Amino acid sequence: MAVPTGDSTVATAPTAAGDEPPGRGVRAREPKRRFGLSARRAWLLVIPTLLVLAVVIVYPVVRAVIMSFQKDEGLDAATGMFVQGGSAGFANYTHWLLQQCPAAGGGTMACPPGTLGSQFWGSVGITVFFAVITVAIETGVGLWMAVIMGKTFRGRALLRAAVLIPWAIPTAVTAKLWYFMFAPDGVVNRVFGTHILWTVDVWPSRFAIIIADVWKTTPFMALLILAGLQMIPQDVYEAARVDGASAWQRFVHITLPLVKPALMVAVLFRTMDALRMYDLPAILTGGSPSTATLSVLVVDQVRQGFNSASALSTLTFLFIFLIAFVLVKFLGANAVRTQEDQRKVGK
């Protein structure tokens, strides 16, 4: 093919159909090569973190599951001889779920009252009771505190810092603080002129734990809800004021619907935290059966046998996972969807 160049014509070799000019294929392959390099570099940065998580999280979980199918070492109830354990099958799980304990002559029997095996379902009920009551109160009070802290007024920064103080105190210190306050001659009885045994009686000890937990973790709920409130555009409130909506109507029809995703995430986080409550019952009441949660029961069982405690910890994990799944699946407690909803509102 001849290409005119002014006064002369330069002959060029014909090109086949589909051929690309020199250099275009190289430039097209460069983004793919760069993407491949970036992906490999990303994996090199992520792999150390995955290895740490595998060592810290995956291995203990897998190890606990394996141990849960083995017998505990100790004295055989039938022979009185020391045994080194062995395969237990599902005996450790039936021990807790069916409350079956080894019998003296072999076989199993119903766990006698007062033993750890007989406290499983009672601990489940106590755990759920604490979780439902504390999360409900903390959600209501936390929403009220978040609405107040979201307003503009003098001293707002000081108020937010003061609200954080209970949450910043370690839980063990909080439990000990309330232990002295709920003592027979403590501040609570002196202020109200009562003689209630807050850390001994069944229901007073439960209410004492609820009060201490609400005081401790309500600021956490308030902060999470406040983050959701600050994502709501102020233009929406201004338009509602122009239309004549009252403060209550703005709260019901604007604040609650738009803060609901963040509220559900806060409920999810706090529920999972409440289901593994240990410090408050263990310190306030010494882990008595009337306030023993699943975490307290696991720690008590560890002192008697690791393998049976592994089965109990596995059941506790599955129990918390099931509740978290229900919250995410049916109540919409999804952090990813929360961010997407907030972006849509902001547009």
UniProtKB/TrEMBL annotation:
Pfam families: BPD_transp_1
Gene3D superfamilies: MetI-like
Keywords assigned by UniProt, alphabetized: Cell membrane, Membrane, Transmembrane, Transmembrane helix, Transport
Chain segments annotated as transmembrane: 42-62, 120-145, 157-181, 207-229, 250-269, 311-331
Residue ranges annotated for the ABC transmembrane type-1 domain, each copy included: 124-327
Membrane topology (UniProt): Multi-pass membrane protein
Keyword Iron-sulfur: no
CDD domains: TM_PBP2
Stretches with biased composition (Polar residues): 1-12
Keyword Transmembrane: yes
Database matches in PANTHER family: BLR7065 PROTEIN, INTEGRAL MEMBRANE SUGAR TRANSPORT PROTEIN
The family this protein is said to belong to: Belongs to the binding-protein-dependent transport system permease family.
Name of this protein: Sugar ABC transporter permease
Organism: Speluncibacter jeojiensis
